[in-house]
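Ops channel
N.P.: pipeline sanity check, posting one input/output pair.
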């Protein structure tokens, strides 16, 4: 997963900022559990990852599931679509109740895309342009639950892919990447379109977390208390640049 950060202002316990959010091209609300399997060909020792996409029109949260315990991971990330059509990012440390927030300019400095294409990748796994450039198959498909399924094949960035697409939900039921020596399969395993999510991090929860802006982390290098939790933020983008 990607990272996030916008540093904790000197432990004063600021609540996570509620920046102005904007709905991008409409995507339905849902909680979706995915399984990603990566395997070298011939496949003998597949590597499995289980994760949730918790999506609404203005933000998406991505959170892994620990294997084999089945419990939610102690970290997650949130991408937010702002009114200016740029993205901001939050890296959440749930056990520590801390959040590192990255503004669009922070992401740009870290060479992380924060545009509409990135939003589509985070919320759909595949962009509208990528879908439109694939070959739609005429074969008859079985509906996923009550949703229509479209079948596509072709290449994305010179990699052969096969996609079962749910146009009403704007997300794949299954996508397979065929690399020269590796096959990666991402499959939708569970879906809920109920408005109330029992898994996603609520605004109330976020407001109880202590916030740090990514740009402030460099000022905390001599703060032993800060370093104790910063070192735990594995996966948060750009943090290695602040540590010596």
């Amino acid at each position: 997963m990607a990272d996030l950060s916008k540093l904790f202002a000197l432990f004063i316990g600021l609540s996570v900022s509620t920046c102005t959010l904007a709905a991008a091209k409409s995507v339905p609300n849902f909680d979706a559990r995915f399984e990603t399997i990566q395997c070298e060909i011939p496949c003998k020792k597949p590597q499995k990852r289980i994760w949730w996409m918790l999506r609404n029109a203005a933000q998406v949260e991505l959170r892994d599931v620990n294997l084999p315990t089945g419990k939610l991971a102690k970290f997650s990330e949130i991408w937010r679509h702002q009114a200016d059509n740029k993205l901001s990012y939050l890296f959440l440390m749930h056990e520590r109740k801390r959040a590192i927030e990255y503004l669009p300019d922070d992401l740009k400095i870290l060479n992380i895309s924060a545009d509409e294409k990135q939003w589509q990748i985070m919320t759909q796994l595949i962009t509208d342009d990528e879908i439109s450039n694939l070959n739609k198959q005429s074969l008859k498909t079985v509906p996923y639950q009550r949703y229509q399924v479209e079948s596509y094949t072709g290449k994305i960035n010179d990699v052969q892919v096969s996609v079962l697409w749910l146009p009403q939900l704007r997300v794949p039921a299954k996508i397979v990447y065929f690399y020269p020596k590796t096959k990666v399969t991402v499959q939708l395993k569970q879906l809920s379109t109920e408005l109330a999510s029992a898994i996603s991090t609520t605004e109330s929860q976020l407001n109880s977390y202590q916030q740090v802006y990514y740009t402030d982390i460099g000022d905390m290098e001599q703060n032993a208390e800060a370093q104790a939790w910063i070192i735990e933020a594995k996966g948060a983008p750009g943090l290695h640049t602040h540590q010596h």
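N.P.: looks fine end to end. The chain is about 15% helix and 35% strand.
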